[in-house]
Amino acid sequence: xxxxxxxxxxxxxxxxxCSVHKAFLLVYLDKAEMLSRSASEALRTVSKAxxxxxVIRLQRxxxxxxxGIALSRHxxxxxxxxxxxxxxxxxxxxxxxxxxxxxxxxxNWLNLVTACTRCNTRKGDRTPEExxxxxxxxxxxxxxxxxxxxxxxxxxxxxxxxLGVSN
Length: 167
Fold this sequence. Notes:
6 strands
């Protein structure tokens, strides 16, 4: 079972995504309540079938300190939808510093974008404007909600109610 389950805090704020097995265990041990279930699947034992959770809410409020989304190659490409931010291709991807490191550009959310090797080589040690390249979208610093909303494309659509996305 590769499905994921949205975990909500007691106040209905999204805090994480977990596996179906972990979510089922939380519900079974009365540490969470099932708010939404998968209509097509069930967890089966020899004598009983249990519904597969899609969204669960914790019974007790859990204080989750916010550390932000980790700056990593994978998360930058995920933010940019695994697409070159100059030409739109999805092949031979790498990272590019908008303001090159040699000119004082740092490695941060607002200075890194996904680029194909062709565009990255063309840009070289210049800014996109100097190289005659235009960004498809301006880079942003993502939040947990941002990544969870992106996850909606491949996950159960009833998460949208809890993430503020209208269907």
